[in-house]
């Protein structure tokens, strides 16, 4: 038999193919997969540069400030120098008998950040600690869910300017004293009282441009804090410019959770993996509850008039809590189902703050509950720190209206820029619900956005289209693909770019 060279090569190729398919399972070697991931991470990171002249940083040399100084080389489990910072407790008023104090951690700007600006960050809850934001979202180092130890955060907001994380209101985290606030105005008054005390210790920060930022229930806190500052000119020696609210609580649950819930499941059908009879049941309930078709009919650009509430009520109609129905069913097929980021599957990842997904998974002491950590940051040793407080920080509930029905429009009008941001993989608050809120809100004399939000309009440097963005009359709205509830954690590159826009470091969203 004549064995030609050509058929030998063909046979060899077939053999190679056979080997790599059946033995290794893939054409790509593990090393090659790894290299692709490293390259992707590098591209992602190179887009984070602020591109400003290196500025000198800030220093605080008064004896009062010295007391709060944190040595960046002495933070437990952090094996790199995070630079100087200041943290501890300060009272919410100058009263001699004041018992209530809030815990803060302040970082001056990194080498490329601006010394003219100050970012204030708060988490929501109510009663959840801003140290979550610090350690897992936008701080100078991060120890995220499922990771082994802290690493420098390339997307730290300290690369933009000074940042102040505050555990507020009273009753949250390390804060001291008994909560007594009745509504959001009380909350704002106490926070502004704290900021006044803060500026007495750090007077070098007086007059800086201020940006108020927060997520989730802070979508309610932040507009009310801004409103308080605008209504009390001269109370605070800072120059409020704008605000960021992400995955914000702005309206009633029926709007932000119920109306869009079944649409959301349809968008992510393969992620939820519900069986067909349950899908049919959901569609039937959606019809019965008058949620079906709501978006197409009422969320138009421009809107045709005020948007209705289903059955005319701010309460969820009886038998129409579809959000809960979906959550319960999701947990049956996926016990790791995470309302904050729906893509999570089994197993639940460990979290150093004890707050992964929708429930606790503690394998070690909570980071901020460790004595050596408390000592390093001047935190009270006798507080059992928890990410979200067990006590009610509004002892008799929050008496304020949701901000969309009160202060939000006027605050947008007074701010230079306002950004509302929403992660599209968030189920606890759903982006389509935020669209309803925006289209039903009147600011600068017009209701909602007048022209449609275009697909693929949010272009992230170094990435490309990653969602949508739309700007009208001082308000910019962003929807971020692949991001869960905590946008700076789940899409740090997008969050960083959005902050650059908010702060005027870039002209386009
Ligand atoms: C951003 O901050 C991180 C962590 O501090 C740092 O490693 C990085 O170099 C900074 N990047 C810029 C552009 O300042
Ligand atoms: C900041 O101030 C402290 C206290 O006065 C001083 O020891 C330190 O050298 C200063 N750091 C810088 C970077 O200026
Ligand atoms: C402190 O005392 C003053 C009067 O002496 C009182 O008006 C104020 O409510 C007290 N403050 C607190 C926090 O107890
Ligand atoms: C849906 O709308 C119809 C007609 O307006 C109304 O009769 C019905 O009560 C509504 N259903 C619910 C659950 O709100
Ligand atoms: C829209 O706004 C009007 C007027 O403020 C209010 O009556 C109505 O309940 C709102 N609708 C929704 C869906 O929030
Ligand atoms: C719809 O509203 C009416 C009148 O407010 C109320 O009686 C009825 O119970 C509501 N229906 C549902 C399903 O909640
Ligand atoms: C379909 O899903 C529903 C909701 O989780 C469940 O009650 C039902 O048993 C499921 N049916 C099948 C065949 O798995
Ligand atoms: C915090 O630490 C204390 C003792 O050090 C412990 O009793 C408590 O259970 C811890 N809290 C949490 C939430 O782990
Ligand atoms: C205010 O916003 C405008 C654009 O909307 C921008 O050009 C300007 O720099 C901003 N001013 C400040 C003080 O941030
Ligand atoms: C935008 O994308 C959605 C699907 O995500 C699609 O249904 C819709 O038609 C698109 N809109 C336009 C104007 O292309």
From TrEMBL:
| Listed transmembrane segments | none
Q: What InterPro entries does the annotation carry?
A: AB_hydrolase_fold (IPR029058), Peptidase_S10 (IPR001563), Ser_caboxypep_ser_AS (IPR018202)
Gene Ontology biological process: proteolysis
Q: Which branch of life, at top level?
A: Eukaryota
Q: Which Gene3D superfamilies match?
A: alpha/beta hydrolase (3.40.50.1820)
Entry's EC annotation: 3.4.16.-
List GO molecular-function terms, semicolon-separated.
serine-type carboxypeptidase activity
Give the range the annotation lists for the signal sequence: 1-25
What are the protein's UniProt keywords?
Carboxypeptidase, Glycoprotein, Hydrolase, Protease, Signal
UniProt xrefs under SUPFAM superfamilies: alpha/beta-Hydrolases
Q: What Pfam families has UniProt attached to this entry?
A: Peptidase_S10
Q: How would you classify this enzyme at the top EC level? A: hydrolase
The family this protein is said to belong to: Belongs to the peptidase S10 family.
Q: What is this protein called?
A: Carboxypeptidase
């Amino acid at each position: 038999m004549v064995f030609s060279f050509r058929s030998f090569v063909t046979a060899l190729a077939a053999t190679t193919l056979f080997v790599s398919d059946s033995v290794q399972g893939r054409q790509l070697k593990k090393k090659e997969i790894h290299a692709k991931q490293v390259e992707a991470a590098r591209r992602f990171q190179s887009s984070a540069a602020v591109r400003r002249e290196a500025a000198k940083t800030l220093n605080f040399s008064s004896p009062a400030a010295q007391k709060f100084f944190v040595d960046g080389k002495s933070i437990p489990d952090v094996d790199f120098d995070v630079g100087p910072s200041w943290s501890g407790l300060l009272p919410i008023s100058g009263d001699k008998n004041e018992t209530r104090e809030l815990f803060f951690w302040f970082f001056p700007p990194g080498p490329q950040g601006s010394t003219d600006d100050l970012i204030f960050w708060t988490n929501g809850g109510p009663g959840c600690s801003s140290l979550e934001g610090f350690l897992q979202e936008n701080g100078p180092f991060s120890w995220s869910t499922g990771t082994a130890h802290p690493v420098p955060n390339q997307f730290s907001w300290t690369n933009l300017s000074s940042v102040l994380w505050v555990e507020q209101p009273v009753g949250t985290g390390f804060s001291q004293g008994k909560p007594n606030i009745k509504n959001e105005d009380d909350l704002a008054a106490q926070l502004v009282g704290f900021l006044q005390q803060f500026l007495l210790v750090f007077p070098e920060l007086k007059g800086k441009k201020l940006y108020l930022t927060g997520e989730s229930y802070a979508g309610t806190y932040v507009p009310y804090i801004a409103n308080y500052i605008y209504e009390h000119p001269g109370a605070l020696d800072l120059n409020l410019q704008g605000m960021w609210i992400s995955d914000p609580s702005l309206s009633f649950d029926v709007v932000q959770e119920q109306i869009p819930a079944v649409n959301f499941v349809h968008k992510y059908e393969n992620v939820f993996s519900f069986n067909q009879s349950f899908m049919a049941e959901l569609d039937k309930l959606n019809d019965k509850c008058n949620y079906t078709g709501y978006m197409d009919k009422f969320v138009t650009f421009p809107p045709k008039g005020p948007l209705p509430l289903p059955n005319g009520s701010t309460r969820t109609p009886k038998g129409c809590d579809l959000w809960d129905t979906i959550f319960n069913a999701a947990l049956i097929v996926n016990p790791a189902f995470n309302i904050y980021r729906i893509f999570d599957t089994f197993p639940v990842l460990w979290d150093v703050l004890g707050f992964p997904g929708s429930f606790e998974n503690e394998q070690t002491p909570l980071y901020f509950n460790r004595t050596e950590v408390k000592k390093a940051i001047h935190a009270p040793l006798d507080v059992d720190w928890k990410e979200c407080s067990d006590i009610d920080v509004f002892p008799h509930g929050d008496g304020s209206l949701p901000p969309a029905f009160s202060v939000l429009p006027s605050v947008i009008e007074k701010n230079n820029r306002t950004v509302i941001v929403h992660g599209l993989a968030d189920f606890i608050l759903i982006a389509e619900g935020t669209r309803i809120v925006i289209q039903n809100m009147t600011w600068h004399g017009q209701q909602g956005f007048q022209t449609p939000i275009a697909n693929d309009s949010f272009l992230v440097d170094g990435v490309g289209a990653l969602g949508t963005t739309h700007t009208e009359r001082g308000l910019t709205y962003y929807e971020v693909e692949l991001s869960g509830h905590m946008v700076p954690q789940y899409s740090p590159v997008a969050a960083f770019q959005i902050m650059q826009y908010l702060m005027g470091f870039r002209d386009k969203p």
